[in-house]
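Design job #97: recover the sequence.
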């Protein structure tokens, strides 16, 4: 063998060593067994999550895990979960109960993101699921009840919001007739000669100044508020929450008074919990 061939063979051996070692480092091994968390699926042949009930989930992988950390995407985090106390999570045996997780979702339906990280094994996975009902519908009518303070209202039947929720709100203006033969669509904010009747988009191209309650947002438009987060609303609005709390429906009303308005909207809301 020539010196060149000997040199080439040595470098080939080094390159193979470099390529193979990272592949093995990707998984914990015990006695040659690969321990890897690879996925999560719904159990009981379910195609979607049923709200309010304990939902069965099944972990998938190779080898075993000591436990798992689970972020259910709805604000619930569980650490070092062991489905069967005293036993490892076994992926390739008939002891399937060790792979079962259960969780009950309440509040919003729609998209759910489950994040699971293995303990004593490799792998961090995300599962995407859907829960019914996938949207909620309400009516939002004006005038507001007597005694309403400010320009924001909440709906007691709606669940609260948490950070990292993708929210879509559709507002369809309803038609109303304050007097026979006179028809408006949207909300009449009470200006002289019906000079400010608008849908959820408000007055086009007009950023409000004081005394409007939300300067910089469109005059007579819908504004959503969650804690300290403000979102410009409209006929179709999509945003990701950065704060937690109730979803407040606000109107950028020039006289800061909802009790002298007339009209309303049909509201459809859907949410997708994005997880961490």
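Job complete. Output follows.
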């Amino acid at each position: 063998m020539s010196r060149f061939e000997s040199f080439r063979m040595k470098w080939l051996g080094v390159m193979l060593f470099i390529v193979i070692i990272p592949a093995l480092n990707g998984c914990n091994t015990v006695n040659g067994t690969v321990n890897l968390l690879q996925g999560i699926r719904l159990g009981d042949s379910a195609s979607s999550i049923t709200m309010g009930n304990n939902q069965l989930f099944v972990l998938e992988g190779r080898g075993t895990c000591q436990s798992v950390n689970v972020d259910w995407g709805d604000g619930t985090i569980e650490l070092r979960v062991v489905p069967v106390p005293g036993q490892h999570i076994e992926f390739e045996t008939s002891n399937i109960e060790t792979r079962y997780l259960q969780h009950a979702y309440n509040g919003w339906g729609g998209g759910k993101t489950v994040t699971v990280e293995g303990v004593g094994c490799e792998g961090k996975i995300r599962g995407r699921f859907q829960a019914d009902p996938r949207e909620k519908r309400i009516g939002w009518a004006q005038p507001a009840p007597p005694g309403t303070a400010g320009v924001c209202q909440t709906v007691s039947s709606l669940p609260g919001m948490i950070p990292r929720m993708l929210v879509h709100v559709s507002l369809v203006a309803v038609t109303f007739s304050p007097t026979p033969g006179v028809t408006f669509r949207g909300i009449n904010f009470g200006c002289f000669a019906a000079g400010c009747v608008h849908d959820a988009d408000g007055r086009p191209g007009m950023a409000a100044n004081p005394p409007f309650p939300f300067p910089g947002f469109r005059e007579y438009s819908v504004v959503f508020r969650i804690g300290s987060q403000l979102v410009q609303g409209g006929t179709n609005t999509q945003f990701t929450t950065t704060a937690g709390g109730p979803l407040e429906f606000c109107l950028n009303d020039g006289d800061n008074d909802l009790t002298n308005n007339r009209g309303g909207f049909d509201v459809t809301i859907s949410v997708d919990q994005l997880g961490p």
